[in-house]
């Protein structure tokens, strides 16, 4: 029963948290200060929760640390999607100023976001170095590693990497996605994710305490969800359909606003890569 409950809770948390972040990001253009105040408050509660449960090894403390890590992660996702913490390059690939390499140009679009995430991981490692309850730390690190893997996949090549979950303000990022092929990294990352999932499942199955069982089951659940998200990159499936309840109203408001104030659309020179991206 412990395992089933943890799986259900992790799945619901992933679905609800993702939807809330998408909704907040789209509301940010109209209520920026309110959204940032709310996201920052939740992040502070999350950090406090991780610290408060660091030396408590119960099933409840594992759940609380898990949700605390999600709250902290949600702040990073919101600041990125809202356009506050992204990178110094905010134009499409091929537009001036031109960079020496495609990788440098792509990295500059997300540089500040990546630095903020890395700094947070280092900070959590320092804060939780002697913690008994590492559920929150491991949850945040798992999300970070899987996100890096996803970003490498959409940069190196994944046929269905284009997602309509990106808000209009970040539409230029799609020009850096490669959709004309599926790279070898995808298969390597898929195998790595499967191995990690198997290890976490084994750890959950052999857990000696309720705390350990909840901890490893939550992590295994998120590893499984990350594996599914990787598959979305190569399958002709609209992942955003899962969060229509969070995006529908925001997209309607955005469409009405765009009719009154048409946005400037970034374009990319007609190259094989840009034509392949446009087809996606």
TrEMBL record:
It holds the Pfam family DUF3623. Keywords: Membrane, Transmembrane, Transmembrane helix. Residues 268-280 have a biased composition (Polar residues). The keyword Nucleus does not apply. Residues 254-280 are annotated as: Disordered. The chain crosses the membrane at residues 6-25, 37-56, 62-85, 105-128, 134-156, 184-204, 216-237. Residues 254-263 have a biased composition (Basic and acidic residues). This is DUF3623 family protein.
